[in-house]
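Lab meeting, item 3. Inverse folding demo.
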């Protein structure tokens, strides 16, 4: 797998990266997540499983790995794997995020009213979580991102937070932000305007983009043109763009996906990821695989020869952003 520069940073990434959202905690909203973990949430067992998937990713050539403070023990599992494999800081690019605190107490399903993670974009949370991330990942940590930046969180107007991020940037850490929700595009555009010391604060943006949700395309192109690295998450729409999606109202779309995938001698998930990998404004697309089998299936995306005909055949899958994010909000933690 070839490597390429992440925007104007000095970091290098591969077109496919590995996100650890589904590997670091018992519960997640990906369809079939519980099955991927064999419903075994023993910490040692989950760490071994994470290492197995990380090994497969590394052996396939993947060199970008993405975690977050709220992904349970994702940073811990990543750190112990880096030590076990004796991977030097310059051999891989590691990104993590701050702004959510994991609160699920290692449970996959919670009682009504309880939350798996709590969002807080305040300065004390940033100061606490950057120390936690650096204590675990040390010199391996290359990129630190605001987790799920939204207009209503106010983080893009929080001068103490932005000043601390600028200090971290000046110390050599790349600073980025991730976005989610129907206002992804507007949030990106607002973030692009923020400068400290005459230099843009952010050098990387991470957004949801897939065959169903493409509302941020224009803003991501703007970010790319401005020199930011672009990372895409949820390329499989949390499993909706896989054969695991048995929702009755998605079967027509799934038939189309299967047909086109078969014509490419590939898989539905690989086809979906190929759509993101081949966008000119995207540097790295994350696989969220929680098993070696699914990772290997995802990797087939690199062999699909994308063209305008493929894009046109799948154009009808695009959903209005409001519908996409509403549907996502209904996905069950499992």
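The presenter then showed the designed sequence:
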């Amino acid at each position: 797998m070839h490597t390429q520069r992440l925007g104007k940073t000095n970091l290098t990434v591969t077109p496919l990266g590995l996100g650890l959202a589904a590997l670091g905690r018992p519960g997640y909203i990906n369809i079939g997540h519980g099955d991927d973990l064999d419903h075994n949430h023993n910490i040692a067992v989950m760490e071994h499983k994470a290492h197995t998937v990380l090994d497969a990713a590394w052996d396939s050539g993947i060199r970008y790995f993405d975690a977050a403070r709220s992904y349970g023990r994702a940073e811990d599992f990543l750190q112990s794997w880096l030590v076990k494999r004796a991977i030097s800081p310059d051999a891989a690019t590691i990104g993590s995020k701050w702004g959510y605190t994991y609160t699920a107490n290692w449970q996959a399903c919670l009682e009504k009213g309880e939350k798996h993670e709590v969002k807080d974009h305040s300065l004390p949370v940033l100061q606490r979580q950057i120390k936690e991330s650096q204590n675990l990942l040390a010199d391996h940590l290359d990129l630190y991102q605001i987790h799920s930046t939204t207009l209503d969180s106010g983080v893009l107007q929080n001068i103490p937070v932005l000043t601390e991020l600028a200090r971290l940037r000046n110390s050599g850490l790349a600073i980025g932000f991730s976005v989610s929700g129907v206002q992804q595009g507007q949030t990106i555009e607002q973030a692009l305007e923020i400068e400290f010391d005459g230099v843009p604060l952010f050098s990387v943006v991470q957004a949801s983009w897939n065959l169903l949700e493409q509302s941020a395309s224009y803003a991501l192109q703007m970010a790319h043109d401005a020199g930011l690295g672009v990372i895409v998450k949820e390329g499989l729409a949390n499993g909706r763009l896989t054969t695991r999606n048995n929702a009755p109202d998605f079967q027509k779309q799934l038939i189309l996906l299967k047909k086109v995938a078969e014509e490419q001698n590939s898989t539905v998930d690989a086809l979906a990821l190929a759509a993101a990998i081949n966008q000119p404004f995207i540097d790295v697309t994350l696989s969220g695989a929680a098993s070696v089998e699914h990772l290997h299936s995802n990797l087939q995306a690199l062999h699909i020869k994308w063209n305008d005909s493929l894009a046109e055949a799948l154009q009808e899958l695009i959903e209005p952003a409001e519908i996409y994010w509403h549907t996502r909000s209904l996905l069950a933690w499992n």
